[in-house]
Amino acid sequence: MKVKISRFNPEEQRAWVQEYEVDTSACSMTVMDVLEYIGNYLDHSLAYYKHSVCNHGICGRCSVRVNGKTKLACIERVDGYESLELEPASNRKVVRDLVVL
Amino acid sequence: MHKIEQIIETDVLAIGGSGAAVTAAYYASKQGVKALLVSKGKAGMSGNAIMAGGGCGIDGESGSQILGIGSADAGFTKKKLFDCLVKESFYLAEQNIVQQYVDDSPIVLKDYLSWADRAGSKFMPIQPCGWQASGAHFVKPLQQALKENPEIRVIEDTAIVELLKTDDRVTGAIGINIYSGQLIQINAKAVVIATGGYQPLSLKNTVSDMTGDGPAMAYRAGATLSDMEFMLAFPTALVPEDMRGSIYPYLFRRVPHRLMDKNGDEIELDPDAKKLSTESKLNKLVNCFYMGRAIDKGLGGPHGGAFWDYSIATQEEKRTALDQFYKRFSLWHRYGYYKGESLQRVDNMIMNNEPLEVGLGVEYSMGGIVVNENMETGVDGLFAAGEATTGTFGACRVGDGLIEMLCQGMKAGVMAAGYCKSHSLAAPDAGQAERAERKLLRYFDNTEGIEAIDLYRGIEEACDIGLNVIRSESKISETLSRLNKLKDLSQNIVLNEKSRQYNLEWMRAIQAENMLICCEAAARAALERKESRGCHMRSDYEEVNHDHYLHHYDFKLRDGEMAMTIRKPTVTKMPLPAGKKENVIRYFTDPALEYNRAFKVNFS
Fold it and tell me: Residue A9 contacts by C-beta under 8 Å, 6 or more apart in sequence?
């Protein structure tokens, strides 16, 4: 699956879209699983919500826009999508990549 | 250039994001001193309490007399609760700390229940004197306490990463704002570590930050770690894969099922063990023993779990049990959901008699910082509370982590406030803050070495081998050897991302250092403990051996090395037993133990 992620570098104030390819066919995955896969294996520099999160849809800290709609990354399954466009939650100050204040 | 951007002064610094830190800050503040709570995540809801799936309780005698709860079963006395906790700990509990748990829990519950009431938490009463709720409802009262007491200063999303000392006394700490990457220094008269435990395996059912920060920081500051080999695991979801880590299997344990291996053969439980599993709170231990042994023998499924086979029940029995569960839990979750996740697919699997592969995930570490009944660590100015400590539950927790966090937080807060009254702020030893700063920022200058995220994953992979549910000499040795190699590699950690703002690699680098300390202590103790006791189960030494191993393994930093010593548990009431038991299940089913936690199981 093609995964496009909106990146943002606060030091350089540089924004760009980065594309990754993730095999989502082997098992059922959430958006968070996809982010973890990218963060662990493809690009260690990616910033996404990861500190003090519950991973099961209650702490509400991992919201991101998935193909334009705000979702909790940890419970949003990717099986219904052909490709993913991940952006930081709207109307919030972007700290880095998908992380907002 | 000096990189510490902010210096804050307080009387008591409570480090942590959940119940132990909130109660420590609250009770310190009530004593008239300034309290500052620094939480790695959202204050009041960033620790493991939010993940709680069951309930918690105290003895019925106190519930009836102190809390005035009419439905409390006064027959489950303080004495009985004490007796249960010590026996459940396999006699490794520190009896003075168990006494504090029994004595202080009704007192702190009084305040906690009033916060809960005002916060609108929905608690369902359970016997003998307890409360069932969801994790979110258990933490609402903590947020309420902070809201009602604005004099408690709160700093969120800030990880405390190192303690500062003046001579031999802890007098502050250094933290990192996770968003901005800025360093802050806190000067405090007393510090309470309430950061929770550590969870080193790759299967997670806890929040994402059980990285052993508090125990490791305390260890570096001179405190002792103990019982690190004991970690409580319980049934945790492996399927559907996107729900991995959910604890729905544990909650579904009352839906009739049998255990099965990958070949479809039943994993047979000793009839007495079955009784323990269904009629007592020892379900976790029983599942670990039987499921763990099958998995260890290579009979696990493709995801590393054992199978729960529901075909033994009729469709009607299953439907009724599932619907009862949904109805009960709809008080806190959407009907048919657990936490934010729909259970529809799992429901379909159960109704279609599709075996459910279930793993064993660690939810709680019994080990941690050694404290006395006043939550003093032995390091001047340093207190600890909650899961970060050790002493309450010994080798196996059956009692409640939620109660431990509240009553120890209260005690630590009161004691730390008292300490403040006879101590003043002191400047940390010259050069110490700068050294901590250099240590934290050194990663950014490295150009080659191990990548932080690979290092952290390497630690988990190492621990999956020898610190999992069933252990053996060769597996633990392999873990230890890998950890030693990773420790060497951790001298040079490299980060791809050089920005300090929300830098997960940087956080992982710092957490890896903490995890390496906790895991080394755990693996060394596990190797040394050539027996099975509570949640430390060895395939090569299945016996519980009171004659040789009824002691703690303590770890302390001496001359830059981790030194191990042996210590007997503190006895105040119940003498330590002698002899051996065939295995951890037989320990409980032995009628001579006279184990009775408000129910009666007649063993064959």
Answer: A15, A96, B499
CB contact under 8 A, B208 and A52: yes
Rounded-to-integer distance, Cα B130 and Cα B25, Å: 25
Name residues whose C-beta falls within 8 Å of residue B603's C-beta, 6 or more positions apart in sequence.
Answer: B272, B275, B589, B590, B591
A17: distance to nearest CA of chain B, Å? 17
Classified as helix, coil or strand, A46 is: coil
A43-86: pLDDT as tens digits: 999 999 999 889 999 998 999 999 999 999 999 999 999 999 99
What DSSP assignment string belongs to B496-512? S----TT-HHHHHHHHH
Q: Which residue of B has its CA nearest to A71?
A: B340
Q: List residues bridging with B37 in a β-sheet.
A: B14, B154
Helix (H) or strand (E) holding B477: helix B473-489
Residue type, B524: R
Q: Look at B499 and A61 and tell me if their CB atoms are within 8 Å.
A: no
Tokens 């932080």 belong to: B452
Give whole-number Cα distances, B349 to B287, B345, B354, in Å. Answer: 21, 6, 5
Distance separating alpha carbons of residues B388 and B375, to the nearest angstrom: 11
Scan residues 146-175 of B and list those with Cβ closer than 8 Å to A.
Answer: 157, 159
Rounded percentage of chain B residues whose pLDDT exceeds 70: 99
For residue range A5-14, what is the model confidence (pLDDT) as tens digits?
Answer: 999 999 999 9
Measured in whole angstroms, how far is the alpha carbon of residue B480 from the centre of its chain?
Answer: 22
Query: Residue B246 is nearest to which of A28, A53, A56, comparing CB atoms?
Result: A56
Q: Which two tokens stand for residue B139?
A: 């933490």
pLDDT computed for residue B173 by the predictor: 98
Alpha helices in B212-279 (DSSP H): 213-220, 248-251, 271-279
Across the strands, what pairs with B13? B36, B191
Q: Can you list the domains of chain B with their CATH numbers? A: 236-362 (3.90.700), 433-566 (1.20.58.100)
Selecting from 3.10.20.30, 1.10.3300.10, 3.30.43.10, 3.30.360.10, what CATH number does the domain A2-100 have?
Answer: 3.10.20.30
Distance CA B240, CA B349 (A): 10
- Which residues of chain A have a CB within 8 Å of the CB of B452? 44
pTM tops 0.95: yes
Nearest Cα residue in chain A from B159: A51
Q: Does A13 touch chain B (CB under 8 A)?
A: no
Residue B30: which H helix or E strand, with range?
Answer: helix B19-30
For B266, what's the count of Cα atoms within 13 Å in the CB-facing half-sphere?
8
**Residue B211 DSSP symbol:** B
